[in-house]
Amino acid sequence: MVFIDLPRRRRRAAAAGAGAAGPSVRVLGIEVTQAIQNMAHDVRLIAGKAAAVRVYLAPRGVSSNLRVRGEIVVSAAPGAPGAYVPSANEIVLRASKHPALGAQRRDAALSLNFLLPDPPAGPMTVRLKRVSGLAGAELAVAPDGNERQVGFASAPVLRVRALGIRYGDPRQNPPPHHAPDPTHFAHLRSFLTRAYPVSRVEWNQAVIDAPANFVPPFSGPTLPNGFDPLWWTLLGILHQHMLTIRQADMDAGWDPRTHYYGLVSDHAGFFRGAANDVPTASAPNTIAVGPCGRAGAGFWDDDGSYGDWYGAHELAHTFGRFHPGFCGQGNDDDRFPHAKGHISDAGQDCIGFDVGDPALDLPMRAYPREAWADFMTYCDRQWVSKYTYDGLYDRLVAEETQFAPRIG
Ligand SMILES: [Zn+2]
Description:
The structure is a single chain. By secondary structure, this protein is of the alpha/beta class. It has 2 domains: 2-7 and 20-153, Immunoglobulin-like (Sandwich); 158-402, Collagenase (Catalytic Domain), CATH 3.40.390. The chain has 6 helices and 22 strands. It has helices at 7-19, 101-105, 182-195, 229-251, 307-318, 386-402; strands at residues 2-3, 24-33, 36-37, 45-46, 51-60, 66-75, 82-86, 91-93, 112-116, 122-133, 138-141, 147-153, 158-168, 177-178, 201-209, 259-265, 274-275, 287-292, 351-354, 365-367, 373-374, 382-383. Strands 1, 2, 4, 5, 6, 7, 8, 9, 10, 11 and 12 form an 11-stranded mixed beta sheet that branches. Strand 10 and strand 11 (138-141) form a beta hairpin. The longest helix has 23 residues, at 229-251. Bound molecules: zinc ion.
């Protein structure tokens, strides 16, 4: 719903608020984030991709802890008519030792968060309109720093055809057949929508039968050089099968920018993922596959599927992203800028932010840069760094034009 804002009345209200006694707030900062961001807004904002506006507050004159909610006005320019957006959460203003800006950025529960599900391209002004206690009493908002201008740019879409690989298990009689549970498709699609630098994900999914010789066990004796010939053979069978399917789709007129990803259920064992290439120039015909299933108790990812970030990693290979060499992987990319494979460092000071997904019961979450690693590493707690986000974006832009379907 859109309301017309009246600048004169706003000024009068602000003046009245400033003179009144009682609790008030000062804005420490406003951050607009879609996956990874710093306070300087060095990470590009993408039109059409769900964004969170995070407002960091410092309370004044709060005598006992006070639970509040807020409202922002979002407009194309300062003072222009705008849309009012209520906060998605409530926060507690602490009477003493209210968390500082750095702590607030690291915890989604400490900032007022406003969801913009489909931000338009162009400039945007965000202004904190009001903060009120749950009983309805309004707190004065100091005018300094309560407004922030940002800009959203158009970006390509991500086109994925996700193929669930249905395979038999001849070790049992009668041989059962296994295919990914639907939730793994849903989690992968959601994760790509949340973590990739795209306006949306154009998604197609299907379950296909594996070739008859693609059967468990998926791994065998490992050679002294770490090589597993059994897995390698099965990987080749699967990549070739998917290449054949992709070619048939292309011959039938599918968009040549579509990336193909195969999901292998771990019902009969863990099938290690891999892409058939890490192309240094655009090559959307690169194929990747990976495992899916539900992680065991105690694993860092307990949301019901590990196929999501695993798939984001494998698909990123098909967009030319290499291993930066952390947590047990070889280093194929020595340009990765952050120690320990982290999503950021103190100099850049990006914090990860996940807008969540109500359909999968995933809440909004902030990911501290000291505790979360880039999903191109093998480390625990996987999210995206600005480095990988920008690299994916550049490749997506290149593919968008180089492989655009020829019309006519
Ligand atoms: Zn990899």
